[in-house]
Specification:
Largest sheet of chain A: 5 strands, mixed
Order of helices and strands of chain A: EHHHHEHEHEHHEHEHHHEHEHEHEHHHE
Strand order of the largest sheet of chain A: 1-10-9-7-8
Oligomer: homodimer
Number of domains of chain A: 2
Radius of gyration of chain A: 23 Å
């Protein structure tokens, strides 16, 4: 992975950085890198995520998948960090033949529709929850399990569990002798893509999970005590510094359809890790070139509160646009479609620079297992570095808990003060 | 549709509004409503979009679709406003049997993958471009047309064109006697969902497009000169006023999987219409309950620069969670999955209010053709109203043009100053 930060340094960028401020920033990066390295060495909570490429055992994952490796469909039942990493990986490098469905919500219309669409007898179910009690996940799993039984499918033959050391899912796995994997120690869900949590569906699809981990390892080896030598830290440091200058919005805009889910994964990583104590950039997911016809107007002409992160692979698949008799379109004939996409990338980057909107360019060699592993790893390292610079607790998510307690109370799992607060809502309804 | 703005009025909301400022705002709404009504009466550019429910002819759309109404797959070739409305409608109310694919990008990997997946002999192609020269759309169309010919499929039997009065697509339609529909006069693409542009795939799927239009008509009838009597104007006015108080980010968070594309459609509408002259809220797409495990941490504990828009249907499909022997999960047994989702909605709303993050609740009766038509119409009316309050040119998108000229130049369609500017990029690359 490489990063080009030229367009945050230009005189016109607003907000922007100058060479002096980069030097000051680099001092802080050096210190933060040391803390991160120490945390990794001690396998501290969160920092341990950066050790996953070496601690994850791909053989154990393949072993757990043996019974269901010929499935035509994979159904991931999980939510948040238990689902997004897996979805990101299969969307980017999965094959076109195996369908990967994700039940990461509790919408009856969606669950009904997925169950109507897939053949449960040919489906591998991967249910993921560290605690084994996540309401959304367990509710969906109970529904799926019943649907399998109703269809005459033995659910114990087709279910893989990834969970913590104890809890209801662990007990269930033991009781029914299900293949069971451990969620990694000391790794929050949103940083667990390169572990059991993220790799099971990819393994069933036959993706090269070893290459994914090797890409992560290349990221680990690239970590260095200066932003000028380390693309991951350069990204985290520049994003943080731009935020301090007023870029409260960080637009993640990959120019590759396969990375659309990656932008969503990034949004979770960035928002949940850094959104604390009144700090944190708001991640906005976009997709090039499509969103040039949707969001670019705002980025170029709206408030100066944004940075744009443009991501692309340096090499793409080939597809030649045929020559045409249609007037005015002859310039497209015999062009590769990827060349059109890259021209749009270059044009957007220059258009933002021209308007003074700071943007950075991130490139991976190609969108394969190695390139994706590297990208995921580097973004996590960037986020952890940014967390050090913000001075927040990067690996917790305390603000999510209030709503969870309220929802549990509303569903009758014991009375909670939060559930009572819901009833006090002040209404001003307009019909 | 109804809207509840109680949670922007509470004392704790920051930013927030008080009763007095709402009264002042209502004065401006009254004037803006008059300008909008006048614009509609004169069928002025843009305002004409609010007349679509009465000017769109569903019979003409059904007529154009006759030859391909039994297709098992629909392929929309278009970009931005030419694709998002159609995708939003079929995602929300389409059937599960007919696949709707959208080629709204120029990624060779994606176009290759779609062509490998679908049976072109059973596919209806809808190609949409007002000018008939949009590079992304025409490049994809040329590829699809050749693929059909290679597969022995007569593309002229399976292609419907929606375009302007002249241009290459219109000529092509005439030459090959293709079913051709007009893009509506005076309506920018992003406001054209309730026209030929948005309704063709829905019609092929057998959706009730008359009910969609009737829902839009109900929205038209609800427009009134006071925000206290009109949910659409209440939304546009409150969003604008909160932006002026510092809520530069507007999170659109529907609690219904079928509305995930709607959030994307809204993001285009809001960003491209209002992002001008340094003004405009940044729309952020989210999905409840999924993104509670992703973004909520930031919304609750991050910077006070946000409003959150929560959307849901008042009635949902049914799906009962089975009773379970699993300890700690008995509270889920015999609950409807939709009740879990609604409990999460209520909990998130209260959690945001508790943290002082302003939020509004929008409800439609159910997620059917009528409810969706109403929602799309009301959001457009809200956006147009907000544009009046901002004082921007709601219906143009000048900042998109720079990049288009640059891309065309790079692809060899004549030299442009913008293409030359791309070559001047200042690089600071870190590897």
């Amino acid at each position: 992975m490489n990063i080009d930060i030229g367009n945050v340094l230009i005189d016109e960028a607003e907000p922007g950085l100058d060479a002096d401020s980069l030097e000051t920033l680099d001092e802080r990066v050096r210190e933060a890198h040391q803390r991160i390295a120490d945390g990794r060495a001690r396998e501290e909570f969160g920092y341990a995520a950066l050790n996953l490429p070496e601690t994850t055992d791909p053989d154990a994952i393949r072993q757990a998948c043996t019974e269901v490796e010929d499935s035509e469909t994979i159904l991931t039942v999980g939510i948040g960090g238990s689902a997004l990493g897996a979805a990101t990986i299969t969307a980017a490098i999965g094959d076109d033949e195996t369908g990967h469905y994700v039940l990461d919500n509790v919408d009856p219309a969606r669950t009904n529709s997925v169950l109507a669409e897939i053949d449960l007898a040919e489906t591998a179910v991967h249910v993921v929850s560290r605690s084994g009690t996540t309401a959304e996940t367990l509710a969906n799993f109970l529904v799926v399990r019943e649907a399998m039984t109703d269809d005459g499918v033995d659910w114990t033959d087709r279910t893989i569990v990834t969970t913590g050391d104890d809890g209801p899912l662990r007990s269930l796995a033991k009781k029914h002798e299900l293949p069971a994997l451990d969620v990694p120690d000391g790794v929050p869900g949103r940083c667990a893509a390169l572990s059991t949590v993220g790799l099971v569906p990819a393994a069933i699809m036959g993706c090269d999970i070893e290459a994914l981990l090797a890409g992560g390892e290349a990221g680990a080896e690239s970590l260095a005590p200066s932003l000028f030598d380390c693309p991951a830290y350069a990204y985290g440091a520049v994003a943080h510094a731009l935020d301090q200058q007023g870029a409260g919005v960080n637009v993640m805009m990959p120019y590759a359809e396969g990375l659309e889910s990656f932008a969503e994964w990034f949004a979770q990583l960035w928002a949940e890790s850094l959104g604390k104590e009144g700090e944190g950039q708001t991640p906005v997911r976009a997709l090039g070139a499509t969103d040039q016809h949707s969001q670019l107007q705002l980025y170029r002409a709206g408030p100066r509160d944004k940075m744009v992160t443009l991501v692309r692979p340096e090499n793409r698949e080939s597809l030649t646009v045929p020559e045409t008799e249609i007037p005015d379109l002859d310039y497209l004939g015999n062009t590769d479609l990827g060349r059109v996409l890259d021209a749009e990338f270059d044009a957007t980057e220059a258009s933002l620079a021209d308007a003074g909107c700071p943007n950075v360019r991130i490139e991976i060699e190609r969108l394969d297992a190695h390139g994706l592993g590297r990208l995921l790893y580097d973004m996590q390292a960037a986020c952890i570095l940014a967390g050090e610079l913000y001075g927040v607790d990067t690996f917790t998510q305390p603000a999510v808990e209030w709503g969870k307690r309220a929802a549990r109370g509303l569903l009758g799992a014991g009375e909670t003060a939060e559930a009572r607060a819901v009833a006090d809502k002040y209404c001003r309804r307009i019909e």
